From TrEMBL:
Name of the protein: Glyoxalase-like domain-containing protein
Residue ranges occupied by any Glyoxalase-like domain in the UniProt entry: 5-198
UniProt-listed InterPro entries: Glyas_Bleomycin-R_OHBP_Dase, Glyoxalase-like_dom
Signal peptide range: none
Gene3D superfamilies for the chain: 2,3-Dihydroxybiphenyl 1,2-Dioxygenase, domain 1
Length: 278
């Protein structure tokens, strides 16, 4: 199974304001556009092909009328279940042949919805189209990835996004998208399930003193996924108590710990030199 990390959804009340705050940190983002039939809009911050999607709702009436949150297993169903609280919601993994993937996941006991064709319009009027596949594990509260097929090769897409100024090589070099950290209650079960379902390799269990957590990494092109179970009173314990199992931290540095900046309900781990408080 050919799977790469594509992006993480950061649900925010005001995508433009969050984008402006990221700019103060030296993080480039661009207006993605509007999902016109759902009443939602986004800003995108790319680090190569891996990116953070700042996703918000610009028309709540349209959002309700079109029942965007009622799409089975979709990110907005997750966001609604979470009470529309700001923070990281779901990750998307990039692949092709979503029909074959759906069959594989169903054979492993997971529920799926799709592929579903979607689109949004860029500020310049260009219509962008893609397909999504949603998945769900009835036995866990940890939101599963959803899957995206952009209908083009990584090479062609990187070239197009670079020419449009959406991908900037300088940002990719100074801010490597190294990992997404998830809070989990059962480390072994969560890692073994995702390894099997998505054909991933894992590293050894380790203790992260900063997170006060017992952790294990799943390796993935585009970024790594780190599962963290509480090992004392720390941020992982707090996230589990307050928000449950979920992605809660994105690391944009090769430093072991770096500098943690809370932004709109999510934690961004940045190089120490980015600390605004210094």
């Amino acid at each position: 199974m050919n799977i790469s990390f594509d992006h993480i959804i950061h649900y925010v009340e005001h995508p433009k304001k969050t984008s402006e705050f990221l700019a103060k940190l030296g993080i480039h983002s661009v207006e993605g556009g509007k999902h016109e039939t759902r009443g939602t809009n986004n800003y995108l911050s790319h680090f190569g092909l891996s990116y953070i999607e700042l996703l918000g709702i610009f028309d709540r009436q349209l959002f309700r009328e079109n029942e965007a949150a009622q799409v089975t297993f979709s990110p907005f169903s997750t966001i609604e279940k979470d009470g529309f609280k700001e923070g990281f919601a779901r990750i998307a993994l990039r692949t092709n042949n979503l029909h074959q993937l759906a069959e594989s996941l169903q054979n492993q006991g997971l529920s799926t919805n799709g592929p579903v064709p979607l689109s949004r319009r860029r500020p310049d009027g260009t219509l962008i189209e893609w397909e999504l596949l949603y998945a769900h594990d009835e036995g866990s509260d940890l939101p599963l990835p959803f899957f995206i097929d952009w209908g083009s090769s990584d090479e062609d897409r990187y070239k197009e996004l670079s020419e449009q100024g959406i991908v900037q090589s300088t940002q990719e070099k100074k801010l490597p998208f190294t990992k997404v950290v998830f809070s989990v209650r059962d480390l072994t079960k969560s890692v073994e399930n995702w390894k099997r379902w998505f054909s991933l390799e894992s590293g050894p269990v380790f203790i992260d003193d900063t997170l006060q957590a017992k952790c294990q990494t799943l390796y993935l092109p585009g970024t790594n996924l780190v599962f963290a179970a509480e090992n004392g009173d720390g941020i992982v314990s707090s996230v589990l108590d307050e928000r449950g199992e979920r992605p809660f931290l994105v690391s944009l540095t090769n430093e072991n710990s770096g500098y943690n900046q809370s932004i709109s309900g999510g934690v961004y781990q940045l190089p120490s030199s980015f600390n605004l408080l210094k």
